[in-house]
Amino acid sequence: MYKYEHGGDVYSSKTTADGKEYIDFSANINPLGLPAGVKEAVKSALKNCVNYPDPFCRELRTATANYLQVAEENIFFGNGAADVLFRLVLALKPRRALLLAPTFADYEKALRSVDCKINCYDLQPQRDFKIGKGILRAITTTTDMVVICNPNNPTGQLTDRELLLKILNKCVEVNAKLLIDECFMDFVDADRSFSMRDLLEEYPNLIILKAFTKTFAMPGIRLGYCLNGDAKLHEMLYKHGQDWSVSILAQEAGKAALQEQYYLYAAFTLIKEERQYLINQLRSLGAEVYGSHANYIFFKMEQPKNLDVLLREQGYLIRSCANYHNLNEDYYRIAVKTRVLNRGLIKAIKEVKKNALFAGNH
Ligand SMILES: Cc1ncc(COP(=O)(O)O)c(C=O)c1O
């Protein structure tokens, strides 16, 4: 039977045994929730839903191009970044790809759906899960596609532009596409010095994946896109899927979200402060914290075992990272939320640690 393996599963069981609603730290979305302007835009767009949506997302495309300072024709929208990812691999049909380990699971899932062979570049805890120059040797003439998640999920680790440029040039040399997933870049300090989007025109083999999902807390609306300077690839993307994958509601939500400058500033400020709070608290509880430059924290906690299961009993969902390549059941990822919720989670971790100590599970 098919197994759902992401965070954010708030449907399988809604409450704890004693009826408490779960607080979900397992999906990394903006803790400020859906912006008010987006809610309004979705409500008022309902009346237009008797029509099909614009297959070219023209208004949203113009707004996004202005917002990101990229050319309109370089943007392709889809039903979330995951949808764009599957369409990309269907259009390109790479035969061999290089992925980081660990990284977001859907790259492998999408690539396997077109029978692509996967090579892994293992990230090391001793190097704080950072990519090293050794990756250049792993890109060979048989590589058709390299995927780098920046910042990486689940580690929250960043790769700097200097190394990315070397990877990009190596990809040009071996005629491979470089897909950089920047879905979490909006939460990073000085994202401009890490994003590669200014190189789209110069490097047609560069594809950048982005989404409204995490930045504007709208995973349920489904809106993502890719940026790429290759007109032929854009044509292929349109040919490899339905014309209406972005609903009218999603297009209107996207346009409204781009107006939310104060919301973004407030979220960014909150996340920066709360991220540090959580890192300090987790370290004081004996966790090894790595990377964590985005709106989520990646850590190793060896005791107690099954922290995710114990916290679930307390009403908190966190992401066990046991099912990522190159990790084990001691690794976890949590989202950064508001202080009240973060404090609650830390209190629950203290509680389960104490209980485990008494029960001899340490
Ligand atoms: C790194 C990364 N890229 C893409 C996605 C998919 O985003 P969306 O919900 O927009 O499809 C996720 C979802 O968790 C993710 O973690």
Based on the model shown, name its key terms.
Aspartate Aminotransferase, domain 2; 4-stranded antiparallel beta sheet; 35% helix; binds pyridoxal-5'-phosphate; alpha/beta; 7-stranded mixed beta sheet; Aspartate Aminotransferase, domain 1; 11 helices; 2 domains; 13 strands; single chain; 362 residues
Describe the 3D structure.
35% of the residues lie in helices and 15% in strands. With 362 residues, the chain is α/β, with parallel strands linked by helices. The protein folds into 2 domains: 23-28 and 261-359, Aspartate Aminotransferase, domain 1; 36-257, 3-Layer(aba) Sandwich (Aspartate Aminotransferase, domain 2), CATH 3.40.640.10. It has a 7-stranded mixed sheet, with helices on both faces. Strand 5 (145-149), helix 6 (161-173) and strand 6 form a beta-alpha-beta unit. Helix 1 runs antiparallel to helix 8, helix 2 (58-68) packs parallel to helix 8 (248-257) and helix 3 (81-92) runs parallel beside helix 4. The radius of gyration is 21 Å and the shape is globular. The mean pLDDT is 95. Pyridoxal-5'-phosphate binds next to helix 3.
Q: Could you write a compact summary of the structure shown?
A:
The chain is α/β, with parallel strands linked by helices. Helices cover 35% and strands 15% of the residues. It folds into two domains: 23-28 and 261-359, Aspartate Aminotransferase, domain 1; 36-257, Type I PLP-dependent aspartate aminotransferase-like (Major domain) (Aspartate Aminotransferase, domain 2), CATH 3.40.640.
List the topology elements.
Blueprint (H helix, E strand, L loop, with lengths): L22 E2 L11 H10 L12 H11 L6 E4 L2 H12 L3 E6 L4 H7 L4 E6 L12 H4 L6 E5 L11 H13 L3 E5 L24 E6 L12 E5 L2 H9 L8 H10 L3 H24 L3 E3 L5 E5 L6 H7 L2 E2 L1 E2 L10 E5 L3 H21 L3
Parallel strand pairs: 1-11, 3-4, 3-5, 5-6, 6-7
Antiparallel strand pairs: 2-8, 7-8, 9-10, 10-13, 12-13
Helix pairs in contact: 1-8, 2-8, 3-4, 3-7, 9-11
This protein binds pyridoxal-5'-phosphate.
